[in-house]
Amino acid sequence: MSHFSRRHSEYGVQAQSLFWSDFVVQYSFPIVFTRGLFRAGDDLLADILARDGAGPHDCLVFIDDGVAGADPALPGAVAAYAETHSATMRLVAPPIAVAGGETLKNDAEAFEVVARAIFDHGIDRHSYVIAIGGGAVLDAVGYAAATAHRGIRHIRVPTTTLSQNDSGVGVKNAINYRGSKNYSGTFSPPWAVLNDFDFLDRLPPRARRCGLAEAVKVALIRDADFYTWLEANADRLARFDPLAEEEMIRRCAALHTAQITGGGDPFERGSARPLDFGHWAAHKLEMVTGHEVLHGEAVAIGIALDTHYSVRAGHLAPGADARVAELLERLGFTLYHPGLRTEDGEGRSVLLRGLAEFREHLGGELTITLLSDLGTGLEVHEMDEARVLAAIDWLQARADGTTAAR
């Protein structure tokens, strides 16, 4: 008898036993880069569905309304593709347009359109929910799929640079709640990620640029050679040269995936989240500006802020912060926004409050990724508020064309 059981038996309590339930779940999904995904003669999507055996498989398709607006023929092309591949897939309804951007993550009524459609059309665990859109739409539709019947197969078709090289290739889904970014969410890997580069040609420049910030992020924390490549190709990337853009997306997605699969914590049970370098400030800036600042734009500012902070804290060599800021500016980003100085009713920095919220979202102790070199991340567990405010001063001084005091 164990000490635990014996001690309780002495007091007349029924002896208890303890055993561990220990098992491993294997996840595997393809991440494909292609063009012309919904052309009638392209079999990629049909082949992905056929991984589950003979069809036809019921499919419910959601399309970002911004994507549908830029390509009005897309819903018809999806329907025609399903008709051509009727032995493999069956649309249970015409493709459904949903609110793009953060609206779908913020608005309960907009999200209800997704959840209700899954319910009304009887989508089950052997059916497929297919989301075509930017990262926010993939997040919200993925969350609905992950929570319906405890998990429905979800295929992502990212349509932005940011979703193709970063958010769309991960394992997270979420919606926002009461002003807190990604508060309600799941870790639920997709069935497949199908990146069609043709969608990028329809993006407005501002949205197309956003994914470049995530490429700089992952290069700074994991791959100095990739960072050097970004510097060498900054002008090509800034004008959206297709070959440079496609190589950037592939390399960034590969690094992102390597962190998830090889970093030892794919479902983020610990406190460290290196892929969120620059994001603690970015998330707060998005929220305080009512998403006037797009996610990639906020990440660029957050990267510049934390890189300068790394120098001020003595972790990173002086001058590296200016080098990173210059790269981001060459790529087309503005690195200061007045929202960084937003204060609450008691005169306290709202941005700094984001540190506490970030710690709460992570769980455990505060863990922030900084830099010890360009290409090498460093985990710290505290941030000096005075240095953060000084970093904001530095960003404003750069924007104003003046020199910030060290």
From TrEMBL:
Domain 3-dehydroquinate synthase N-terminal stretches: 97-207
GO molecular function: 3-dehydroquinate synthase activity
Domain 3-dehydroquinate synthase C-terminal: 211-337
SUPFAM superfamilies the UniProt entry points to: Dehydroquinate synthase-like (SSF56796)
Domain of life from the UniProt record: Bacteria
Membrane-crossing segments per the record: none
Record keywords: Amino-acid biosynthesis, Aromatic amino acid biosynthesis, Lyase, NAD
EC number: 4.2.3.4
The keyword tRNA processing appears for this protein: no
EC main group: lyase
UniProt GO BP: amino acid biosynthetic process; aromatic amino acid family biosynthetic process
InterPro entries: Dehydroquinate_synthase, DHQS/DOIS_N, DHQS_C
Requisite cofactors: NAD(+)
Protein name listed in UniProt: 3-dehydroquinate synthase
